[in-house]
């Protein structure tokens, strides 16, 4: 599927433009069927975007927010993506949005994934909006090179839902939506910042195995066009 690159002079410019785009998409979904859904990435990159989006005029009480992936840690852990969303997106006008976490208190990460899949089924897929990030190794969501369940995660025939992922350098075990859950969002965005990430993107767009740079699965096989938002 073709991708479109949108370049901005600064992260602040990107955050404002992306917030406007996402707000329009969510509002259109609400107008069409009364609800809207968005799955967002973690890490430090989306903070300014989250803050900008939280100020947009949307019927937030009709919006459901979830994460594309999460560490197997409670919401009060500083490494939790849930904490990031609480502090930066579920603020201002977006306080009334519904948030569905991926982390579930459970004896194992596998049980947490099962519980999270049950909870996510209430949202309804395809999502209206999916925002992905990308690591310097070419991972996205928690699709890590060498990950324990990578082949299953990237297989389009794997049922929609959440599975586990463990990989060297990933830290805690992860919970991640499958590729099949993310690839057909009405708006599918890859949000990256920095010259280094642009170099990684260029490499991912070249030849090579998806297992070596899992972002290639999104760029090559997503059934929705990928909107790439980049700023230095």
UniProtKB/TrEMBL annotation:
Record key words, sorted: Hydrolase
Residue ranges occupied by any Glucosamine/galactosamine-6-phosphate isomerase domain in the UniProt entry: 10-221
This protein's pathway: Carbohydrate degradation; pentose phosphate pathway; D-ribulose 5-phosphate from D-glucose 6-phosphate (oxidative stage): step 2/3
A single GO molecular function term of this UniProt record: 6-phosphogluconolactonase activity
Catalytic activity of the protein: 6-phospho-D-glucono-1,5-lactone + H2O = 6-phospho-D-gluconate + H(+)
CDD domains assigned: 6PGL (cd01400)
Catalytic activity, EC: 3.1.1.31
One Gene Ontology term from the biological process aspect of the record: carbohydrate metabolic process
Signal peptide bounds: none
Enzyme class: hydrolase
Similarity section: Belongs to the glucosamine/galactosamine-6-phosphate isomerase family. 6-phosphogluconolactonase subfamily.
Role this protein plays: Hydrolysis of 6-phosphogluconolactone to 6-phosphogluconate.
UniProt name for this protein: 6-phosphogluconolactonase
Lineage, highest ranks first: Bacteria, Pseudomonadati, Pseudomonadota, Alphaproteobacteria, Hyphomicrobiales
